[in-house]
Design goal:
3 domains
């Protein structure tokens, strides 16, 4: 049966025959040339033509994702889950989807971002892979954790930050995600709907947050829950500093002062 896309040439057909025989889904520069008895420059040209035409997907320089069968219409469009899985396997790293992508996933924000945001311990920067865009945010190993694994319709696994971790990161990473003050409203709403979430947010804040995050979330949760024993975990981590920080960092630091958490309540 003929595909509707551009026809494969002889060399391309030999390439696909080989990778399908060996059931390869990842191919690296240098692997195919000796098999097909071609030069390194011919191999580079083959990969360039196949990726430019959409038959295979360039994950990064010298690394290509190969479909299990020749794609109908000649366009291979793997999803986010497969791309991230293979990319992180190659990098020997870990990731978790975060920020605006997670905000939409959990229903906090109905805006669908055009970029997939993810924390990881290997790569930094924005990258386009196929027709998808990714914002790789490199963090220390100890800042990865509190995850929620999701199975896709293709039976792939996608790793998200948990709901509690995502809410905490609206405060921790507010400048990157432009998530304050709306993050406070999301936290209030989610705790009202699911009171047990408060303890998870406290645990995540204590483990993954910084001092500013502890202060801001501590002040917020003090207004929502009346359980001193729960709040003690955050209070014990407060520094002895007498400096104050604004409750809403994007606004003028003018307002009443909460000495317990070192907050200027400016909104």
């Amino acid at each position: 049966m003929k595909s509707k896309g551009p026809e494969l040439g002889s060399l391309s057909s030999r390439f696909f025959a080989y990778v399908q025989l060996k059931k390869l889904n990842i191919v690296r520069t240098g692997e195919i040339a000796p098999i097909l008895d071609i030069s390194a420059s011919q191999e580079r040209d083959l990969f360039r033509r196949l990726s430019d035409s959409g038959w295979i997907l360039r994950l990064k320089r010298g690394l290509y994702l190969i479909p299990s069968r020749i794609p109908a219409g000649g366009k291979y469009s793997p999803g986010v889950a497969l791309i991230l899985q293979k990319h992180m396997e190659e990098e020997k790293g870990r990731y978790q989807i975060c920020g605006p992508t997670a905000f939409n996933f959990y229903g906090f924000d109905d805006q669908i971002p055009s970029v997939t945001y993810l924390y990881n311990n290997r790569i930094s920067g924005k990258r386009s892979i196929g027709n998808l865009a990714f914002q790789f945010i490199k963090v220390a190993d100890e800042r990865l954790g509190a995850i929620h694994a999701v199975r896709t319709r293709e039976d792939m696994e996608m790793i998200y930050s948990s709901k509690a971790r995502t809410l905490m990161d609206t405060v921790y990473d507010w400048s990157r995600f432009n998530s304050l003050p709306r993050g406070y409203d999301w936290i209030k709403e989610e705790i009202n709907n699911e009171p047990s979430l408060a303890s998870e947010i406290i645990k995540n804040t204590a483990k993954y947050g910084n001092m500013a995050t502890i202060r801001r979330i501590g002040y917020l949760l003090d207004t929502l829950i009346r359980n001193p024993r729960m709040m003690n975990r955050l209070q014990r981590q407060l520094s002895a500093s007498s400096s104050l920080i604004p409750w809403i960092p994007v606004r003028s630091a003018k307002g009443t002062i909460n000495r317990k958490w070192g907050i200027i309540v400016n909104g």
